[in-house]
Every structure is written in structure tokens, then in C-alpha cells.
Amino acid sequence: MAFWQGPPLPPTKLGHYRTLSPLASIHVSPLQLGAMSIGDKWGALGMGAMDKESSFNLLDAYFDNGGNFMDTANNYQDESSESFIGEGSGISLSLRPRSIHPSGHPLCTATDPNSQYTTNFKDRNKDVANKITYVGNNIKSMHISVEASLKKLRTTYIDILYVHWWDWDTGVKEVMDGLHNLVVQGKVLYLGVSDTPAWIFSQANQYAIDHGKSLFVIDEGAWNVMERSFEREIIPMARAHGLALAPWNVLASGKLRTDAEEERRRQTGEKGRTLVDPMWERTKDQKKMSRALEKVAGEVGTKSITADTSCLGP
């Protein structure tokens, strides 16, 4: 028997971990689980929702197939997303030790300060009167949000903390100094930013380099076959500076679907997301793109126009 045993084969390609970026050597799954639908508070808002049992089943399925990389936010599902993940990770997922991090934390949880801070996560809480302190990039909002997220996630630290969006009130110095302090305190390991212009990202990282602060190592932004602005400045910047990329809205908010699927939703009353766009039905351009994807799906022999599950095989 060899002294060094090789690692077991992962159950699926979700377990073929990769280095996040040249600036962040943590190993993560190639596909990140977005957790905006985990939680039970946004169903009436046209955003979808999952009860606790369904949320745990989804977390289990992702974890059992090798996944270890999640993205949530402080305000998702009015805070129930983080709460469900914290409860599920502590009770259900920790029973599977093969993927537990040395720290004892089963998942690399990217908690978005759109979740951690920036977005007002008390916006619909009628018991909170002074809501202004729960929003923005400023240090007070940052502190309140991170402390709340740590409690909800039932963890002592967050692997990746994103600035979810730039609030245009807080300066680069305050943001980067505040985020660096969280890293020094051990409450956050890596920093990211979402939906922010490339020039601000570059300015922030240059400030961090010049003053010995922690850098942003990952950029998150909307990117799909119909939304290509991510390619104009963000991707070239990431290539030049060794940054990771975390696309969101890759399925165009569910608007990439077949005519048959749209008719099924119309007949059943399921419809689609209406929180951002009150029109759940596809536009002319979205229908055109969906039909093109359906043609490609037929050519490669898959039923879905948005996913080929064979790519997740062992």
C-alpha cells in the first residue's frame, strides 16, 4: 500500500475544484450555487421562494455532488436565505465530513454585502425604525451587516465578502479601510465587489496596494448571452490583474425558455419573476434567442436550452 493515498474521485465535476484566482488560492467548485431563491419571504414579490425543507434538499443535493461554493446576501428573502443556509450547513451538511474544510465549515460561503452590506436588509422589517443605518457602503452599515450575517450563517467568518453595489456616497478609502479591518479581525478572508464600474474597482485596488490593505480578488456582474456589457471593461480588467469572475443572471432571469415552457407557465399560472421586470413574458429578442438556443440544444442532443446535465458527470 502506498504511503500517500490519492484523493477519492469526486461524485461529479462539481468536485473538480479550482483555484479561485491568482490572488486567492482557495479551492472552489466550478459552479457556484446562487442562494437568492433559498428562503421563504419573497414568493409574493414575484421572486420565487423555497420552504425550509426544500432549501435543505437543494443544499444537500449540491453538497452531495461535490459543491462547496455558495453565494448569498444579507437581504435575500428578507434574511431567511442566510438563516436557512446557516441552519442547513450546521445540521444537515456537516454530517458529510468528506468536504468539510479544516476549519470545520462545510461550505465556502460567498456572502454578498448586497447581503453582507450595501442593500438595506431591514427594508421590510416594520419593527426597525431607523433603517438608514442598514444600507450603504459606509463602515457602520458594513459592521452591522457583517455581524448580523455571521449570526445567521452560524459561522465565525465569511470566505468572500462582496460590496454588492457602489453607493456613490462612500469614498474608496473608507470602504477599503473598513473591509481590510474585517480581514485583520478574521471575520472575512477575501474581498469582492459586484456591479461596480471597472474604474472604481481599479482605483480601490490601487489604493489597497499603495497603503498595504487587502485587495478585491473577485468581480461579480450580470453576464449572459443577451447581456454582454461585462465583456467591455470588466473581463479585460480581470485578465490584466488576475481577478476571478462570478457572473450572475446567466439565465437572463428565466427569460431563456422554450415556447412550450412559456405556454405551460401561462396555463398553470406559474408565470415567472416579476420583482425587477413586471412583464414575466419574454420580449421579441428573448424569444429569438431562446429559439436559437433550442436549435443548438437539438444539435448537441440535450433537452434543456439552459443546461446540459451531462457536463456534471463524474
From TrEMBL:
Record domain NADP-dependent oxidoreductase: where: 30-304
UniProt keyword annotations, A-Z: Oxidoreductase
Single GO MF annotation: oxidoreductase activity
InterPro entries for the chain: AKR_Detox_Biosynth, NAD(P)_OxRdtase_dom_sf, NADP_OxRdtase_dom
A matching Pfam family: Aldo_ket_red
PANTHER family, A to Z: ARYL-ALCOHOL DEHYDROGENASE AAD10-RELATED, NADH-SPECIFIC METHYLGLYOXAL REDUCTASE-RELATED
Family per record: Belongs to the aldo/keto reductase family. Aldo/keto reductase 2 subfamily.
Protein name from the UniProt record: Aldo/keto reductase
